[in-house]
Amino acid sequence: MQTVTSHTSQRGVMTTSQQDTAEKAAQLLAQIAESRSRQAFSELFSHFAPKLQAYGTRQFGNEQTAMDLVQETMTNVWHKAHLFKADKGSPSTWIFTIARNIRFDLLRKNKKRKDDISADELWPILAEQNDNLDDDYALDQDILLQEISHYYGQLPDAQRIVVEKIYVEGKSQQEVSDSLGIPLGTVKSRTRLALKKLKELIVEHD
Amino acid sequence: MIKSHPSEAILYQYASGDLSASMTLVVGTHIDMCSICKQTVCEIEEELCKKHLDSIVETICAPDKGSMSKSQCDQMLEAIFNSQVKPAVQREDLISLEGRRFNLPTTLAHNAHRIGEWTHLVGKLWRAPVNLSDDGQTNLIYMEPGAQVPEHSHKGQEATLVIDGVFNDEHDAYYDGDFILLDADRKHTPRTATEDCLTLATLDAPLFFTSGISRLLNPFSSLFFR
Ligand SMILES: [Zn+2]
């Protein structure tokens, strides 16, 4: 639960008991993800359902819609517990973002639009393959890191520096853009060219 | 080096789920590209969670008191355990136009199935609608190198996000990830120079073209933003 602590030390407001609660909730989510534990889910449910119900009631001013929000939010938690990442925030914040999305859908459902856009499309927080998506040119699977480290020295300087920062130092393209003071588009095109060149080098030497 | 970001007020509305669908798409796609705004939104979501969930003291499904009774809880649990997983939204990460391929940031990739046919407009401009069944009009606009959009002002607000490339107007140059919000009375003339540019734009009212020759192009406004 390192992140919870570091997040909050920044703001310095979370009490120890809240931290304990967050830790407990994270454990329950892990149990649900690993073993589909109904016991763990019931425990999580009795903690969060009344809170969600209060949120829903204040948002909709309607008991039934509030209950729909509780049910749909917790249904997502049950099926998607494996998508909770403890290093990205607290369990309650994750559950809140799910509830926020359900609220968006319920508000629009009332407007009865055909082929309506859903919150799952607009905030893809529950998408299965959401890792590494920020990096447009995530390392091609057919180029091993080892091979890169072997050949990147042969790239032109401008490309080599970008590849070094991204694949050796693990920086994002945005960070590279910031640290070198060049536009993100340039970082992208240099990465693209460098990977192309590396592929050629690797094939040549195979 | 993104230098043009949504205001904190817009990020707050985004995190609360209070923006229109089209604005949520444009702001969300900016956030995919912008680590600074991503961090700000995470912090806002924490705040919102404290306000809406953590502050609620009722914490258990009590047998007979509180807003949710034990039997209501048990009923709902039963329904949840018997529920089916919703089919996931399909994402497409690439779009092609004129032999160019563009990577779509996550949020836009989840809406790729809503992108309609590309239409060649006048000159070096292309447009594809993003069909959000929303009140706003949302389009991908592609400008070839050396393209110019006739000077125009807006009846409503126009939000533009650079997905890939660079364009200029009389105020500045805008690169990948830059988010530009223009008010109703602000005139501008977007153009490209040696690079091309793909943008995502949303408008809550039709455009008005203001310069002489382009007044003749006014039907173009209905083509451009539809
Ligand atoms: Zn930003």
TrEMBL record, chain A:
Keyword check for DNA damage, yes or no. Answer: no
Cite a single GO BP annotation.
Answer: DNA-templated transcription initiation
Q: Does the keyword Transit peptide apply?
A: no
MF terms from GO for this chain are:
DNA binding; sigma factor activity
Listed A to Z, the keywords are:
DNA-binding, Sigma factor, Transcription, Transcription regulation
Output the Pfam families linked to this UniProt entry. Answer: Sigma70_r2, Sigma70_r4
Return the NCBIfam families for the record.
PRK11924.1-3 (NF008890), sigma70-ECF (TIGR02937)
Which family does the similarity line name?
A: Belongs to the sigma-70 factor family. ECF subfamily.
Q: Which protein are we looking at?
A: RNA polymerase subunit sigma
Q: Output the lineage of the source organism.
A: Bacteria, Pseudomonadati, Pseudomonadota, Gammaproteobacteria, Alteromonadales
From TrEMBL, chain B:
* Domain of life, source organism: Bacteria
- Signal peptide span: none
Looking up InterPro entries in the UniProt record yields: Anti-sigma_ChrR, Anti_sigma_zinc_sf, ChrR-like_cupin_dom, RmlC-like_jellyroll, RmlC_Cupin_sf
Stretches assigned to the ChrR-like cupin domain: 117-200
Mention any Pfam family matching this sequence: Cupin_7
Which Gene3D superfamilies does its entry note?
A: Anti-sigma factor, zinc-finger domain, Jelly Rolls
State the protein's name: Transcriptional regulator
This chain's source organism reads Idiomarina fontislapidosi
